[in-house]
Design brief:
It is a single chain. By secondary structure, this protein is mainly beta. The chain has one domain (2-132): Beta Barrel (Lipocalin). It has 2 helices and 10 strands; from the N terminus they run ααββββββββββ. The chain has helices at 2-17, 25-28, and strands at 30-38, 44-46, 53-58, 63-71, 77-79, 84-91, 94-100, 105-113, 117-121, 127-132. Strands 1-3-4-6-7-8-9-10 form an 8-stranded antiparallel barrel. It starts with a helix and ends in a 7-residue tail after the last strand. Residues 28-119 form the Lipocalin-like domain.
Length: 139
């Protein structure tokens, strides 16, 4: 009886604590600034200042785009006008973004997406950690 209770508690915890990749989709959209990159060899590169941010937009059809923006002090942005189109697929309990541009195609996997944090791994196994972009307020 004790064994069954322990197995039940562990199973419940694993199920309830596991991340459902479908819930990540609602948090993808918005302005993101890179905070850190962890390379495959374990080395880290921290970004204390970013002159560009990524804007991600997702449509109801599980497709979207990402574009680089340069924020200005007045709250406006300058755009690169080069957007990267993607489609979203849930595969093997992972949320994958499949990008396609005229020059290349690639896949990124979303490891975590919350209101404040985005964690992505690319094909080179580099992990990118983003935080929500907060505009500079000079008032």
């Amino acid at each position: 009886m004790k064994r069954l209770l322990i197995i039940s508690i562990i199973s419940f915890c694993l199920i309830s604590c596991s991340k459902n990749p479908e819930t990540f989709v609602e948090h993808l959209e918005g302005y993101w600034e890179i905070e850190e990159v962890i390379l495959v060899d374990g080395s880290k590169k921290s970004y204390t200042f970013n002159d560009t941010v990524d804007y991600i937009e997702v449509s109801d059809s599980l497709a979207g785009f990402r574009i680089k923006l340069k924020p200005h002090f007045d709250g406006t942005f300058k755009t690169s006008k080069d957007s990267e189109q993607f489609t979203i697929k849930i595969e093997n309990d992972s949320l994958n973004l499949y990008y396609k541009t005229p020059f290349d195609t690639w896949k990124e996997t979303i490891l975590l997406a919350t209101e404040e944090q985005l964690k992505v791994i690319n094909k080179n196994k580099a992990v990118f950690l983003y935080k929500k972009f907060t505009p500079i307020n000079l008032d």
